[in-house]
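Example 4.3 (complexes with small molecules)
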Amino acid sequence: MYEYVGNIHLHTEYSDGSGSVDRVVEAAARAGLDFIVITDHNTLRAKEEEGYHKGVLVLVGMELNYRCNHYLVLNVSEPVPSNDKDPQAIIDEVRNKGGIGFIAHPVEKGSPFYEKGLTYPWTQWDANGFTGIEIWNRLSQWRDGLQSVGKAAYLTVVNPHAALVGPYQEVLSRWDELLRQGMVVAIGGSDCHGVNLKLGPVKLGIDDYYLAFRSVNTHILSHRPLVGKLETDAMVVYDCLVKGSCFIAYDFFLPSRGFLFWAQDRHQTALMGQSIACKPELSLYARTAFPARVDVIRDGAVCWRSYGRYHSFKVDMSGVYRVEVWHELRGRFRPWIYSNPIFVVPQD
Ligand SMILES: [Zn+2]
Ligand SMILES: [Zn+2]
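Answer. The structure with zinc ion bound is encoded below.
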């Protein structure tokens, strides 16, 4: 398997971001990313700059809608018009065009220090046909942490990472619920705008591209390597995202490269996004690059917990299994990795 690290969901000066594609690429290369997906608001203007720059594969999608129901659209060649009120229409149009779509930052808490608490939530949970959900959005969650002057100062000046507490439980519960009906792929995004926040005369690079690209990333696992050609490699990335052969990781404190989650018995193996029959000798395995705590989630509830680098769990019932991984930092566990699920189906 080939693993590639990417940052999905970010803005450039083609919409309300501050950086040119060049500046964004510079930061991505410095952060060691293999690919980025630029998703400016309601425009595909960056499309002309798709391709390899400084060794980074630059792909261009867009983020649709204004006041609510933000939707990330990938793999389309023409812009799709927004429709705040009827996101199902957008989902269907993207699908008809052969594109991929993710519900963006579905739950936001808002902050009194940012647009007077304004949020951009997803409201249409009866929608269907979307590829997946952005279960963890860096900028949105950082902003949600700004609840008092003291908290705002701490998260802005001292420790921005403290705001990043992992995907919201409401979002994970929605996702687990949807997974009962079939595959819904989870991704993470930075939503970086590269905007310097000003605190009096001091400029703070909290929404800095480089910092963001070392935080919430989406890692893809592919049987095919990237070969350095835009069209072929774009399909490798999109294929992994559609199938759910990917995981989300907060890479700042510990790089998560090397993480693997799979199910196996004597005759068959399943990776993230795949199904496997529930046979007597079936086990789930996880491998982490550093010692960590692994929580195995079955149908939305923790069913097993283990510590170390190699983890195995004997499966005795069917269900949707995924893992959440936490690493220790100064005596506390920090959210690190969120896998996509493996479906253990009844044996026929
Ligand atoms: Zn948005
Ligand atoms: Zn955005």
